[in-house]
Amino acid sequence: MSGCNKLIAKDLLNQGAREYNKGRFDKAEKIFKEAIERDPEFVQAKLFYATAIRSRVGSEDGEEQVKTAKMAIEAYKELLKPENDARLKDRDRDQVYAFIADLYKTLDDQKSYQEWLQKRAELPNQKPTTKAECLYSIGVIYWNEATKISKKYETQVPGKLPEVAKPDKWKKEDIDALLQAARTGLSFIEKAIAADPQYANAYSYKSLLLKEQAKATVDAQLVAQLEKDAQVAVEKFQELNRQAAAELSGGS
Question: Nearest 5°: phi and psi at 122?
Fold first, then answer.
């Protein structure tokens, strides 16, 4: 690659960045693509190109949004090929994994969303809070699965919280599915807490998952223990939030 083309590519990157900052994502995308054509080893241009495509996703809908999201995913995955990945900074690599996961979430591809969250959590030298956030987000996926099942057995009572039928009124396959979802979700939440014991939201969803597990549990003694553990978790969540609020206000 000639030095002339490399200089032109850098100039194009700056032009594209100016267009991007003005919100002209289509134009920026074309300029970044031209920069890549001038210098196929220009990783920063590839990163900006993928980001310009992703920036269009939020303003689109339907098939157009799906098409653009898939284009952005492929552009980001290009950056993870060995010849490009070796040149990425840790911060940029982390963002690539985060954006791919988020794009799969936009596409409602839960399996791929979870896969990329886990990959991001397992990146070398990953920050504890980021790792906890990823593992917590996977736990939330399983909580959503559990609540879809338990909601089938809810009865709306005017002026009160919904009442959930006792498990003896449930189908066995629903009990098994909810317990599996709740336990799997809890395993990810516990990993999140192990990664960062100060990650407050993990305790909130630990409480919620324990409550879901209790809904499908027949043994009264075990239900009481699950509810007790759920209360301990929510109190820890509240304690961490109070500490965070005190730190923000300059307290101890």
Answer: -95, 5
Q: Is 30 left (phi over 0), alpha (psi -120 to 50) or beta?
A: alpha
Coil/strand/helix, residue 109: coil
pLDDT for 13 beyond 90: yes
Encoded tokens for 141: 């996926």
DSSP code for 154? E
Give the domain ranges of the chain: 127-252
* DSSP per-residue string spanning 177-212: HHHHHHHHHHHHHHHHHHH-TT-HHHHHHHHHHHHH
Residue pLDDT, tens place only, 46-65: 999 999 999 999 999 999 99
- What pLDDT is attached to residue 108? 96
Cα distance between residue 64 and residue 69, in whole Å: 9
Q: What are phi and psi of 154, to 5 degrees?
A: -90, 145
DSSP tag of 81:
S
Please say if the pLDDT value at position 252 is more than 50.
no
Distance CA 68, CA 180 (A): 35
